[in-house]
Amino acid sequence: MTSRPAKCSIHSAVIPAKAGIQLYFEDPQGEKLDSRLRGNDGVLQGVAVLTIEASVMDALLAETSLAHPLECCGILLGEHNHITAIQPAANVHPQPQTHFEIDPQTLVDAHRAGRNGGPQVLGYYHSHPTTVPEPSATDAAMAAQDGSIWAIIGQGEIIFWRDRNDGFAQLSYSILDG
Ligand SMILES: [Zn+2]
User: Fold this and answer.
1) Cα–Cα distance, 142 to 57 (Å, whole number)
2) pLDDT for the residue 103
3) Is residue 67 assigned to a domain?
4) Which of 147, 128, 153, 169 has the alpha carbon at shortest distance from 60?
5) How far is the CA of 171 from the centre of ligand 1 (A)?
6) Residue 34 domain-assigned?
7) Is residue 14 a part of any domain in this protein?
């Protein structure tokens, strides 16, 4: 990761996919997103699926460290494909070293807040304390295939996935400062 430039600019336009993983691009989200992705030279660098506040990236890594060696988990909040905040949750799974289950009350509260004008529930996050941030067999079995976003944190890296009806697809993303 490069150092952060001035406010409201992009410091990693499109995160390259890991070898062997097809990076998944969705339809452009409109002019606003396109303009955010133009580099200093004004050239469109690519259309990322997600935009994520830098503070969210920091918070995900902090939650991962705090929970280690257990898995942390929680909810991704924002609007459309822009993640603005996280809601940490208790991991209520009986084997939190290798599994996660978001406290159902936290989920209920987040959905209720969204209906009452708060940020929307865009998806979920959890950490892999000892493995790569790719969906495990357990994750695949748990997937609702409902189009939600999954952030997985592992080995110091954060990867965002779309829980699609044909499986998990890695999403491109841009980080926004300010
Ligand atoms: Zn997992």
Assistant:
1) 24
2) 97
3) yes
4) 153
5) 16
6) yes
7) no
How many whole angstroms from 10 Cα to the centroid of ligand 1? 28
**Total structural domains within the chain:** 1
Please check whether residue 5 lies inside any domain of the structure: no
For 125-152, the DSSP string reads EEEESSS-SS--HHHHHH---SS-EEEE
pLDDT tens-digit map of 20-48: 333 444 444 333 333 344 444 444 445 56
**Residue 103, domain CATH:** 3.40.140.10
CA of 109 to the centre of ligand 1 (A): 23
What's the gap in Å between 49 CA and the centre of ligand 1?
A: 21
Q: How far is the CA of 132 from the centre of ligand 1 (A)?
A: 9
Per-residue pLDDT band at 178 (split at 50, 70, 90)? low
> Domain range holding 41?
23-176
Classify 38 as helix, strand or coil. strand
